[in-house]
Amino acid sequence: MGGKVTCTLGEVKNRADFIIYWGGNPAECHPRHFSKYTLTQKGKFVPEGRKGRTMVLVDIRETMSAKAADIFLQIRPGKDFEVVTTLRALVKSQPVNRERVAETGVTVEQLQDIVDRMKRARFGVIFFGMGLSMTRGKHMNSAGILNLAAEMNAFTKFVCMPMRGHGNVTGADVVLRWTTGYPFGVSLSRGYPRFNPGEFSTVDLLVRGDNDAALILGADPGATMPQPAIDHLGRIPTIVLDPKVTHTSRLARVHITTAVTGVSATGTVYRMDEIPLPLRPALQSPYPSDEEVIKRISRAVAAKPSWIPAPQSATTAFA
C-alpha cells in the first residue's frame, strides 16, 4: 500500500485525544507545537484541553519533551522498525516473540498497553521526526509508521504526519508530487521520473559520489549531512542560491545571493500539514529571488548554441 492518512493541524487541535511523538523533540525543535496544536489547546471536541489528551513519546533518550509526556517509551537506538512492526502485529492480534521484543528496550506488555490505548482513542495522531526517518531503517521506518496509522483506521480514526525539520520542506515535497507523482528520492536521469528512496535520495547520491554537479537552493547540507557527502560537495562543481553565507556556500564554487523569501520576495510556503500560506514581502532587497535566478539560468541554458550531452554516469535527483 502507499500514501498516508493525514489531516490538518486544525483538526488535530480540535479532535485529537491521543497523540504520539516518535523520534522527535518538539519541546525544543518545534517550541509552539504543544501550545498551538496538540497538548494545551482547548479544541471543539476536546474542551478540557490537556486533561482530555494523552501524549506518548517514543525516543532513544529522555529529552525535554519527555517531561510533557504521559507515557515515555525509551527504545534502543536503531530499533524503531522492530517496535513499529511489533505494534502492527499487536494491532492485528498476531503473536510476537517476547525475546525479540525485549531486544528493543521495551516489553510486550508496554506495547500492548499502547495498542489498547490507541484503539480506545476517538481521534489519534502520530507525529514522527528525523530520529525515526534518518536513522537505521530510514524510509522503511517511515513506511511502517504510515502503515500503522492506516491500519488503525479499522478500529478508530487515526492520522500520521512528519515533523518537518526546515522551512518549506513540505513545499518541495508537494511540488515534486504534482510534477512527478513522487514526494522525494526522484531521479530524472532517464527522461522520466523514477522513485527509489535510498538510491536516489540526495544524501545517498552524495555519499556514494554518483553525481558530478550540484545546485542547492535554500538548504545547507554542508551543516547537516554525513561527512562523506560534505566531502563530495567540496570536490564537485557546487552552486548555492542562498541569502546568507552557510557551511555549504563556503564549499561551493558559485554562491548567488538571493532575496529572503517572505521578507523581501513573494512566494508560497507550505505548512507541515501541507496548507499553502502566501507570503507578501515587507522589505525591498537589491538581490533577485530564487525564482528569478532559476529562470535566468533556464533561459541561458536554452539559448546555448551547442548542447553537450551529460556523461552517462551523471545523475539528477531530488531529495
The CATH class of the largest domain is: Alpha Beta
What global shape is seen?
globular
Q: Total strand count, please?
A: 13
CATH homology superfamily of the largest domain: Dimethylsulfoxide Reductase, domain 2
| Beta content | 15-25%
Stretches with pLDDT under 50, minimum 5 residues: 313-319
Across the major sheet, the strand order is 3-2-1-4-5
Question: Rg, please?
Answer: 22 Å
Q: How many domains make up the 3D coordinates? A: 2
- Major sheet characteristics: 5 strands, parallel
Distance between the termini: 22 Å
Our count of helices gives: 14
Based on secondary structure, the structural category is alpha/beta
Secondary structure: elements and pairs:
Layout: H1 9-15, E1 18-22, H2 26-29, H3 33-36, E2 54-59, E3 71-74, H4 80-91, H5 98-102, H6 108-120, E4 123-128, H7 130-133, H8 139-152, E5 157-162, H9 169-180, E6 186-187, E7 194-195, H10 202-208, E8 214-217, H11 221-224, H12 227-235, E9 238-241, H13 247-251, E10 254-256, E11 267-270, E12 276-279, H14 290-303, E13 317-318
Parallel strand pairs: 1-2, 1-4, 2-3, 4-5, 8-9, 9-10
Antiparallel strand pairs: 6-7, 6-13, 11-12
Structure report:
It contains 14 helices and 13 strands. The chain has a 5-stranded parallel β-sheet with strand order 3-2-1-4-5. It folds into 2 domains: 9-162, Dimethylsulfoxide Reductase, domain 2, CATH 3.40.228.10; 169-318, 3-Layer(aba) Sandwich (Rossmann fold), CATH 3.40.50. Helix 4 crosses helix 6 (108-120), helix 4 runs parallel beside helix 8 (139-152) and helix 10 (202-208) crosses helix 12. The chain has helices at 9-15, 26-29, 33-36, 80-91, 98-102, 108-120, 130-133, 139-152, 169-180, 202-208, 221-224, 227-235, 247-251, 290-303, and strands spanning 18-22, 54-59, 71-74, 123-128, 157-162, 186-187, 194-195, 214-217, 238-241, 254-256, 267-270, 276-279, 317-318. By secondary structure, it is α/β, with parallel strands linked by helices.
